[in-house]
Amino acid sequence: MDRKIGRWVAADVVVLVFGLFPVLWIISLSLKTPATVADGRLIPSEFSFDNYSGIFKEGVFTDALRNSIGIALISTLIAVAIAALAAYAIARLEFPGKSLILLSALAIAMFPPISIVGPLYKVWASVGLYDTWLGLIIPYMTFTLPLAIYTLSAFFREIPWELEQAAQVDGATPAQAFRKIIMPLAAPGIFTTMILVFIFAWNDFVFAVSLTSTSAAQTVPAAISQFPGASQFQQPTGSIAAAAVIVTIPIIIMVLLFQRRIVAGLTAGAVKG
Amino acid sequence: MAGIQFDDVTKRYDDGFEAVKHMNLEISDGEFMILVGPSGCGKSTALRMIAGLEDITDGELKIGESVVNDKAPKDRDIAMVFQNYALYPHMTVRDNMGFALKIAGEDKGSINQKVEEAARILDLSGHLDRKPANLSGGQRQRVAMGRAIVRSPSAFLMDEPLSNLDAKLRVQMRTEVSRIQQRLGVTTVYVTHDQTEAMTLGDRVAVMRGGQLQQVDTPKELYNHPRNIFVAGFIGSPSMNFFTAHVEDGKVRLPFGEVDLPQGVQAGGEVIAGIRPEDFEDATLTGDLPDHLVFEAPIDLVESMGSEIYAYFPVEAPVAQSDELAELAADSGLADVPSAGEEAQVVARLAPESEVKEGSKARLSLDTTKLHLFDPSDGSNIAHRGG
């Protein structure tokens, strides 16, 4: 028994180190001064927050941060709202073409974004969506909807149908039953889906770098790639590291905030099991 | 409150399967009606059609004076107790019971009052602020009942509400259900496959098989005058003994003797005889009784239940064969038990004082006035024919 636990602990440590070492490294980089940035040591010889104050002094990063938060949040809300309705229909209703919808959703999810970025750039440029929030929100929604529909319909299927029927017999309209019974019970699923969609939108680089050009809509990943160095011959390594650390913070906050809601077993006690 | 009326109601699924066939049934205001039958007989479908959870293919369904075929469940003013209770897990007991009233837009004060009243009736007052997950099975069942009664609907629909409880609790809740229904006097339709529930709860019992009503009668009538072999075999525990017998010259030739054909009954040739286990007596205890046929039976198994004794013995008569009996056997899981062919097994229910012993002969008597005879071709009760 003890040996078994020991092996698990060892495996966990390996995974943690493997996963977190790069994060540790980039935090270390972000705290180094330009002179020591290339010294290859994990613990900086002198700590400095110049990189952080530096990126916030430039408008480029704060604008990008604002764009990122706005675009990711709006995409998440719209995508999850639409996906919830679609997933509910798929989970509960029998209608012609149901499997076709699921299949095409899956096909879209398989599509590599890079293959549509070129045509999308042309279209966006001609209809005036280039370098706007909406121009990024639309592709983000399109690419996250399939995943959202899949996860949500799995959650909806878990909810006993009798609950809805009970609500209907109790006098609720289908819309009321959905809002007051299904949505609260599917909350863990909805929050999980929201986090997945948010992370996709937040991390996206391909669309961001191709469909935006100015601080009007440029998101953080795109902005970081275009950080200017202190001089023409210097890589802005410290600034990039600092920006990278900053952009992970919203994700961490979001996961911490919602992890309590992402508990399974909320439906325990609904039916005799 | 209102009566419920099935007028030639049929439910046909898309694949052509008919779950309920031309059902005609009138449930009067305040009546406790039981729908009973083996699984797949259409009883739940019939109940769900009343609730509006299942579309009606043909015919008319009335609640009170209005035809409800096209009404949504919410407009039918009915309350339903589901087999798995279907409590809303994210709401407290209070919110669960008050949900329907809240939807209906009643004010908080009167909702609270009604919920607390219902909780008092159901002995749930101490649990109003707990969630369903923290309740025992019996408490959940009562919450489900409470959710139905707070609304004072025109009818209660119950879909095997006690089947998830353990045996002891089931008996307790059965009397509770009966008491609540009598107290409120609301029309109730109760679906069950448990014949004990059917016999003890209902004003009338509707026995269904394969989507068709077999007989609708008071429990006593069903028991004493089953219209066909299916009802006879379904009602009663242990169930009725069946074996083939011959009718000749106004006499029924049973394997253990001859009995006069009951008056007014016309029959000839092969029939299926049906005898309830309780219509046998231990002749050494009772002595000679009028209208009793005394015979010797080789007892091969005795089960003592304390309050009564079940004595099993074989008789030299072919096991009765019919579709109805095959279906009953399948439903009780007996289909795979090989039957003896030329030897039917009979069970007699005797008084506990009886001293019958396994492996020895016993003197039993049969109440000949209680003999049932069925037509082997269609399973109908011969005594009922034309009447």
Summarize the entry for a quick read.
Chain A has 273 residues and is mainly alpha-helical.
Quaternary organisation: heterodimer
Computed Rg of chain A: 23 Å
Q: Provide the CATH topology of chain A.
A: MetI-like fold
Mass-distribution shape of chain B: elongated
Question: Helices and strands of chain B: which structural class?
Answer: alpha+beta
**Rg calc of chain B:** 24 Å
So, CATH architecture of chain A? Orthogonal Bundle
Number of separate domains of chain A: 1
- Overall pLDDT metric of chain B: 89
Q: Percent helix among the residues of chain A? A: over 70%
Number of helices of chain A: 12
Describe the structure.
The complex is a heterodimer of chains A (273) and B (387). Chain A is mainly alpha-helical. Helix content of chain A is 72%, strand content 0%. Chain A has helices at residues 2-30, 50-57, 59-92, 98-110, 114-127, 133-158, 161-169, 174-185, 187-203, 206-211, 220-225, 237-258. In chain A, α6 packs antiparallel against α9. Chain B has 387 residues and is an alpha+beta fold. Chain B is built from ten helices and 21 strands. In chain B, β4 (58-63) and β5 form a beta hairpin. In chain B, α2 crosses α3 (108-121). Chain B is elongated and about 75 Å long. The two termini of chain B are 34 Å apart. The chains are: A mainly alpha (273), B alpha+beta (387). The interface between A and B is medium-sized, with 24 and 32 residues.
Key descriptive features of the protein:
A: mainly alpha, MetI-like fold, B: 387 residues, alpha+beta, 10 helices, 31% strand, elongated
